[in-house]
Amino acid sequence: MGIGFVILIHLIIIFILGLIIAIAGIITTYFLRNKDKRKRKMLLALFLPFIGLYTLYFCVLISSILISETKNIDIGIGDSWYVPLDENHQLLFIDLPEQAYIEKNGQTVISGVSKIEQTDGFILGTTNDDKYFSYNLKTNELNEFESEKEIDKHPNLKRAIEFYSDKRNEIVGFSLIIAGILSLLISAMILILITKLTLGKFKLKGKKTNANTVYN
Predict the structure, then answer these.
(1) In this structure, what are the phi and psi dihedrals at residue 77, rounded to the nearest 5 degrees?
(2) How far apart are CA 55 and CA 189, in angstroms?
(3) Neighbouring-strand partners of residue 119
(4) Of residues 168, 88, 120, 72, the one with CA closest to residue 102
(5) CB of 59 within 8 A of CB of 183?
(6) What are the Cα distances from residue 39, in Å, to 43, 44, 96, 110, 151?
(7) All CATH 2.40.10 domain ranges in the chain, comma separated
(8) 3-class DSSP string for 143-156
(9) 80-171: in CATH 3.40.630
(10) 19-54 residue pLDDT tens
(11) How far apart are CA 33 and CA 199, in angstroms?
């Protein structure tokens, strides 16, 4: 799936979730004992869920794209995602976590990677047809074996998607967590601002003038 189609699905899901929250909010607001500004409160109950959810989503989306660009890592927004293995190599997935590839400068080195480990300049792993391989990241030498015993090293292999997740977290660090917190704060501030403007709770401070004051 392309990134546009993925975002469209996300937007539809958010709309359904926002609609459920809005309906529940309108019903709750209608039966509140305090009827002061009830119509305005019902309008807020209708629109705030959509505003809040969509604001949060686009803030997270934009920050995720920025992190992907700055860290040279694809966190899986579209139909493919990857993590760098070194300056020239990357582990790439397309559509499904079972479809893992090792690429060098856009050229496939080995496909169908199911398990993988990176150690001492080597990539060790297995393929979907249960064959083992060893790839030297410096010399680009690829060796394939029928069993683990034929490999000089004793690999501690992880599932490819688990390796990707650990490598991604190592590279991005706390960036995604910070981005999520900032996105929540921005969304909350916008909701508070809209609520105060709608209910007229902003107070303008200034000097009071006496209507009976006579100016010369």
Answers:
(1) -75, -40
(2) 11
(3) 122
(4) 88
(5) yes
(6) 6, 9, 48, 63, 73
(7) 80-171
(8) EEECCHHHCCCCCC
(9) no
(10) 999 999 999 888 876 777 778 888 999 999 999 999
(11) 17
